[in-house]
C-alpha cells in the first residue's frame, strides 16, 4: 500500500462485488459523518481512495485493494425536500429503498430505478444508472440537478449542468474516479399510484421478441424482457416482454415485503444447465394473465425478494455481462451471435434480461456513461475457467457492432478493449487531471482498464 494510513479508523475487510467472482483484501474507512467523507481526500497521505455505496456493482468498481475503500452507507440523511416542486437533496449513502419508503406514500417516485432498490444515491450517480424506462426518461443523470464533488486536492465543487458542467458530466458514469459525490439534488416525479398495470407478451424466438419491443415500446412507460438463453434452434432468444404503466385509481400504499434470505451458499451443482433448462421451460410456459395490476415494488425489484440471491451461484460466484448493441437488424444479429456463442462454448446464461435504450442525452460530454440508442442485454454467467475466453469472444462481437460494456457490471474487460469501446476516455482523463483526481482516486476496475495506476 502506498502512503501512510489517512485515519486510525481504517480496518481490514475482504470485499467483492455483487457477483462474488473475485474477492479482495482491502483497507476500508467507514465514514460516520459527511465531514469525515469530504476530508478523506485531504487526509489520504498519498494513498488512493474509492468510494463504495452498497457494493451492488457486480465486479470491482467499488474496490480499491491498493489504497482505501471509503464506505458511505452511514451517510444517509435526507437534507431537504420541497413538496411543491419534488426537489430532493440527500446524502450520498442513502439507499433508494429508504427514499422510496418515504416518498412513494406521498405520491413521489425516483424517476429512474435499476433492478434493485438496495443501491446508494452516490452509486446511482457514479454509474449513471438506467431503468426500464430509458426509452422515455433517459438515465439517472437526466433527473439529476446537482451534487457536490470533493476532488483529489480536497476541494469541493458544486456541479450541475450550468456550474462546472465538465465536472458534472465526467462524474455521471465516472465510476467514482472523479472524486467523492455528496449532497445529491434530484428531481422526483409525481405518480398516480404505487401500482403498475403490467402486460406480458410472450415471444417464441428472438425475431418475435425484437418485433414486440418495436411494436409496444413507445406505448408504455416501462419495458423489459426476460430471455431464455438455453433455448436453441427455432426457439433461440425466446422470451417474455413485460410492459408497464403506473396504474390510475389505486392507492399509494407502499409495503415492500421483508426479503427472504438464502440460508447457505448453495453448492456449485445446484444451478446447472439441466435444472435451469427445466426452470426456464416452466417459467416460459407459466400461465399468466395478459394484463394485471401488480405493486410497483414487485414490478421494479423482483430480485430483491431474496436478499442474498447472489449466493445461489455458490462459492464460484458469477459475473454479469451487460453490453450495448445498436438498434435495428444489426443489434438483433449481434444478440443472436451472443446467444449462439455462449451455447457453443457450453456456458449459456441462466438469467438474461433485454431492454431498449433511447439516444443518450449528452453523449459528447458524459463520456463514460453507458446507455445509448440500441438494445442492452445483461446475462449472468457462473464462475468458470472458460469465462475469460468466452468474454473475449463476446467483446469482439460487441466491438464489431460498435457497442460497449457497462462498467458497473464489468469484471473482465481489459485495457485494450476498453479503449476501443470508450474512445472518448482520453478527454475524460483530462477532466480528472484538472481535478487532481487522476492520482487520488483509483479502483481495481480502473487499474484493470488501464485508466489508473
Ligand atoms: C440485482 C441488481 C440489479 C441491477 N440492475 C441495474 C439496472 O437495471 N440498471 C443499472 O443501471 N444498474 C443496475 N444494477 C447495478 C447498480 O445499479 C449499480 O452498480 C450501482 O452503481 C450500485 O450502487 P451501489 O450503491 O451499490 O454502489 P457500489 O457498487 O458500492 O459502487 C458503484 C460505483 O459507484 C461509486 N460510488 C458509490 N458511491 C459514491 C460516492 N458517494 N461518490 C463517488 N463515487 C461513488 C463507486 O466508486 C463505484 O465506482 C443492478 C445491480 C444489481 C445487484
First and last CA, distance: 12 Å
- Enter the CATH topology name of the domain at 195-420: Vanillyl-alcohol Oxidase, Chain A, domain 3
Calculate the mean pLDDT score and round it. Answer: 94
CATH class of the domain at 195-420: Alpha Beta
Number of helical elements: 13
Give me the secondary-structure topology:
Layout: E1 11-16, E2 23-30, H1 34-40, E3 49-52, E4 68-71, E5 78-82, E6 87-90, H2 96-103, E7 108-109, H3 121-127, H4 134-137, E8 144-150, E9 156-160, H5 165-171, E10 180-187, E11 189-190, E12 195-203, H6 206-216, E13 222-227, E14 239-246, H7 273-285, E15 291-295, H8 296-300, E16 318-325, H9 328-344, E17 351-357, E18 374-382, H10 387-400, E19 404-405, H11 415-421, H12 425-434, H13 444-448
Parallel strand pairs: 2-4, 3-4
Antiparallel strand pairs: 1-2, 5-6, 6-10, 7-11, 8-9, 8-10, 12-14, 12-15, 13-14, 13-17, 16-18, 16-19, 17-18
Bound molecules: flavin-adenine dinucleotide (FAD).
The site of flavin-adenine dinucleotide has 32 residues, from strand 3, helix 3 and strand 10.
Amino acid at each position: 500500500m502506498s502512503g501512510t494510513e489517512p485515519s486510525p479508523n481504517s480496518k481490514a475487510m475482504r470485499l467483492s462485488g455483487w457477483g462474488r467472482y473475485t474477492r479482495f483484501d482491502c483497507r476500508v474507512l467507514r465514514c460516520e459523518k459527511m465531514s469525515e467523507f469530504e476530508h478523506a481526500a485531504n487526509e489520504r497521505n498519498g494513498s488512493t481512495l474509492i468510494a463504495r455505496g452498497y457494493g451492488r456493482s457486480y465486479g470491482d468498481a467499488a474496490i480499491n485493494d491498493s489504497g482505501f475503500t471509503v464506505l458511505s452507507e452511514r451517510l444517509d440523511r435526507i437534507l431537504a425536500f420541497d413538496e411543491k416542486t419534488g426537489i430532493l437533496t440527500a446524502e450520498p449513502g442513502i439507499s433508494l429503498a429508504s427514499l422510496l419508503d418515504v416518498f412513494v406514500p406521498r405520491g413521489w417516485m425516483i424517476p429512474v430505478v435499476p433492478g434493485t432498490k438496495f443501491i446508494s444515491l452516490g452509486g446511482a450517480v457514479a454509474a449513471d444508472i438506467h431503468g426500464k424506462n430509458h426509452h422515455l426518461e433517459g438515465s439517472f443523470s437526466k433527473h439529476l440537478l446537482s451534487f457536490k464533488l470533493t476532488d483529489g486536492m480536497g476541494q469541493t465543487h458544486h456541479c450541475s449542468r450550468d456550474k462546472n458542467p465538465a465536472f458534472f458530466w465526467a462524474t455521471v458514469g465516472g465510476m467514482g474516479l472523479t472524486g467523492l459525490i455528496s449532497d445529491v439534488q434530484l428531481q422526483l416525479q409525481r405518480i398516480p399510484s404505487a401500482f403498475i398495470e403490467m402486460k406480458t407478451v410472450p415471444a417464441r424466438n428472438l425475431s418475435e421478441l425484437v418485433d414486440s419491443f418495436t411494436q409496444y415500446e413507445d406505448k408504455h412507460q416501462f419495458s423489459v424482457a426476460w430471455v431464455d438463453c438455453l433455448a436453441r434452434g427455432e426457439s433461440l432468444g425466446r422470451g417474455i416482454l413485460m410492459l408497464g404503466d403506473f396504474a390510475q385509481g389505486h392507492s399509494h400504499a407502499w409495503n415492500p415485503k421483508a426479503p427472504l434470505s438464502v440460508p447457505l451458499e448453495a453448492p456449485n451443482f445446484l444451478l446447472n444447465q439441466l435444472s435451469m433448462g427445466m426452470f426456464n421451460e416452466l417459467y416460459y410456459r407459466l400461465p399468466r394473465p395478459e394484463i394485471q395490476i401488480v405493486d410497483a415494488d414487485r414490478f421494479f425489484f423482483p430480485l430483491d425478494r431474496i436478499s442474498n440471491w447472489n449466493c445461489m451461484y455458490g462459492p464460484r460466484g458469477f459475473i454479469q455481462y451487460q453490453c450495448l448493441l445498436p438498434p435495428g437488424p444489426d443489434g438483433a444479429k449481434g444478440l443472436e451471435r451472443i446467444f449462439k456463442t455462449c451455447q457453443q462454448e457450453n456456458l449459456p446464461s441462466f438469467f438474461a434480461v433485454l431492454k431498449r435504450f433511447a439516444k443518450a442525452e449528452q453523449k459528447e460530454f458524459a463520456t463514460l456513461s453507458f446507455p445509448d440508442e440500441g438494445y442492452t442485454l445483461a446475462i449472468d454467467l457462473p464462475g468458470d475457467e472458460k469465462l475469460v475466453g468466452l468474454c473475449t469472444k463476446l467483446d469482439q462481437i460487441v466491438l464489431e457492432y460498435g457497442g460497449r460494456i457497462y462498467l458497473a457490471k464489468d469484471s473482465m474487460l481489459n485495457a485494450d478493449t476498453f479503449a476501443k469501446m470508450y474512445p472518448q476516455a482520453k478527454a475524460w482523463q483530462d477532466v480528472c487531471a484538472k481535478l487532481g483526481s487522476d492520482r487520488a482516486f483509483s479502483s481495481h476496475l480502473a487499474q484493470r482498464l488501464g485508466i489508473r495506476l
